[in-house]
Design goal:
globular; 9-stranded mixed beta sheet; alpha/beta; Spore Coat Polysaccharide Biosynthesis Protein SpsA, Chain A
Length: about 300
């Protein structure tokens, strides 16, 4: 009998974090699943780690290997080999809370929705800092605009009805950052989403990693927007397009500030304003622009002087 859920885990040089990710799957309160681990050409001891789990869970875990092609190709291979009615994704850096699958199956039962997503925690593995990320509730009337401005949905929080991929297609392997964002947009066109307002996933990130490279991320975000706005359904939405592009440059400015690159911040802020001047009415945007011109020390000095005058 085929499992209800196929859990797809792309692995690349992930021996260090893979055990905790796998443990979080096998300790789920809902156990009707298979796990498909796709080794994306690892050169570390990922295979040895997987062999240990294969010996412990021979009926639940399957191992697939491919030459290094990236996470999208690995996920797509997992989808092709999956047997479940539903598909879930987990990256080796991340961890599921124990009731994740159980609550998601319940959330989709009795609905016409084909996808459920959850809120999640974000933990920086370098700094040790963590915070919670609460997603917006799904509203079909508002979702398209909100989604094009910012991707709220994190891949490991999802549970997706597999048959949706027959219409939407799978991950676009030509995209290297926004591939998830692109797929969610195509899924949005074929099914409703359910937002489950519980923190059921811990997304672990590494500051300074490739995923925090503002140049690379902006380039791929713009490729994604170019693809999306080629869709006849929205290609003539001039204002929405301007807002989406402007907001991506704003997010890039934030990323440049995180690495203390004042030139990158000011260039992205100015580009954002040139495309769509929403930033003139946004305090966070104006602070970024001020920071890029004056620098953090001068801003703190001015703030301290202002506070001193208020307390007199």
């Amino acid at each position: 009998m085929d499992p209800k859920i196929s859990v797809i885990i792309p692995c690349y040089n992930s021996a260090r974090y893979l055990p905790s990710a796998l443990d979080s799957v096998f300790s789920q309160t809902y156990q009707d699943f298979e796990v498909i681990a796709i080794d994306d050409g690892s050169t570390d001891s990922t295979r040895e780690v997987l062999d240990i789990f294969l010996s412990k869970y021979p009926d639940k875990l399957r191992y697939l290997y491919q030459q290094n092609q990236g996470p999208s190709a690995a996920r797509n291979k997992g989808i092709r080999h999956s047997k479940g009615e539903y598909v879930a994704f987990l990256d080796t850096d991340d961890i599921w809370l124990k009731e994740k699958l159980e609550l998601q199956v319940k959330a989709l039962s009795g609905t016409k929705a084909g996808l459920v997503y959850t809120d999640y925690y974000i933990e920086d593995m370098i700094s040790g800092e963590s915070f919670s990320h609460r997603c917006r509730p799904f509203n079909r009337m508002k979702f398209k605009k909100e989604f094009l401005l910012d991707n709220q949905i994190s891949t490991p929080t999802l549970l997706i009805e597999k048959k949706c991929f027959e219409i939407s297609g799978v991950f676009d392997e030509s995209l290297h950052v926004a591939e998830d964002w692109d797929l969610w947009y195509r899924l949005f066109k074929v099914t409703d989403f359910v937002h489950l307002p519980y923190f059921l996933v811990k997304v672990r990130v590494r500051s300074g990693s490739q995923s925090s490279d503002p140049v690379r991320n902006l380039r791929n975000d713009l490729l994604f927007l170019e693809k999306i706005f080629a869709d006849p359904a929205i290609k003539n939405r001039v204002v929405l397009k301007a807002q989406a592009y402007s907001f991506r440059y704003y997010k890039a400015a934030i990323a440049y500030k995180d690495i203390r690159n004042r030139k990158g911040v000011i260039l992205c802020c100015l580009k954002s304003l040139f495309i769509f001047p929403f930033g003139l009415f946004n305090k966070k945007f104006l602070y970024l622009l001020l920071w890029s011109v004056l620098g953090e020390r001068l801003i703190l000095r001015l703030r301290g002087k202002q506070e001193g005058e208020i307390n007199r």
